[in-house]
Design brief:
This protein is α/β, with parallel strands linked by helices and 271 residues long. 30% of the residues lie in helices and 19% in strands. It is built from 7 helices and 13 strands. Strands 3-2-1-4-9-7-10-8 form an 8-stranded mixed β-sheet, sandwiched between helices. Helix 1 (16-19) links the parallel strand 1 (2-6) and strand 2 (26-29). The two termini are 27 Å apart.
Length: 271
């Protein structure tokens, strides 16, 4: 399993490479000038490749997919990792559903806050990939929330696979270069439509800086593009995506995956 980290211009703040410093990994930037700046800043702990692709995460994601052999899996990560936490009793569980209730919620919240070292994380990645292969799926991710009651089921199969961290299998699928801000919604929808599901391992959380400086910038800096891409994706995947406006946010600036599961071509028992 290749480990590939995507970065743009966070020369001094890239953090993900350090987490994987004892493991072979590759950082992708866009051009030679950026590559030299990253090397000079001293925060790269693996190999670094200047892809010569235009700015845009989808461009470099497609480049990374082309680095893989057919049916090979890879770990894709953004560059601004804060921490990885997990269910501390992960390997003690005998079922794939936790009995979380009001009385024990605090205990599980603490348990979910267990630090996950790189060796354990990679073991869980391989376990999750094996589970996806058994289901005939090609895209995996981790919990979308730190809220314990929403993480009772170990695996989910129909939701956004947050682009902060992916386990992705090389198939015929590729990113749409028209979408570079919310490209995870595109690739999630494409996988739902093609394979009938995705895998979310809810017992692990990959916490990253959201909308930090650099790359596509803060939420306000990328809002115009986010609205444009939301419209594009809702039109492209109307059976899978819908608008979901948020309070104090511009209209049509947020989308979500529809709760609709008819696209399961082989009727695999996912749920």
């Amino acid at each position: 399993m290749k480990i590939i980290i995507f970065t743009y211009d966070r020369y001094d703040t890239i953090s993900t490479s350090k987490y994987f410093k004892d493991v072979k990994h590759t950082v992708l930037c866009h051009d030679n000038e950026s590559k030299n700046k990253f090397i000079d800043a001293g925060n790269i702990y693996g190999d670094i490749i200047a892809t010569q692709q235009p700015k845009g995460l989808s461009n470099n994601r497609n480049y990374a997919l082309d680095m893989l052999n057919e049916d090979e899996w890879a770990l894709f990560f953004v560059d601004d990792l804060i921490d990885i936490t997990m269910l501390g009793s992960y390997y003690e569980q005998t079922t794939e559903r936790l009995d979380i209730n009001y009385q024990n919620q605090k205990k599980y919240t603490q348990d979910f806050n267990t630090k996950c070292d790189v060796k354990t994380f990679l073991n869980i990645c391989n376990e999750t990939i094996k589970h996806a292969e058994q289901k005939g799926l090609a895209l995996c991710g981790f919990s979308l929330t730190g809220n314990a009651p929403w993480r009772d089921k170990k695996y989910g199969y129909w939701s956004l696979v947050d682009g902060r961290c992916w386990l992705v299998k090389k198939t015929k699928l590729r990113q749409d270069n028209n979408v570079n801000c919310i490209e995870d919604y595109h690739f999630t929808s494409l996988n739902l439509k093609t394979f009938g599901g995705v895998v979310i391992n809810n017992w692990v959380l990959t916490d990253c800086v959201r909308y930090g400086e650099g790359s596509y910038g803060t939420l306000n800096q990328r809002m115009e593009q986010k609205i444009k891409e939301s419209k594009y994706l809702v039109n492209k995947f109307p059976d899978f995506l819908m608008y979901a406006d948020k309070a104090n946010m511009p209209k049509n600036s947020h989308i979500r995956v529809r709760a609709k599961r008819k696209y399961n071509p082989n009727q695999i028992n996912l749920f």
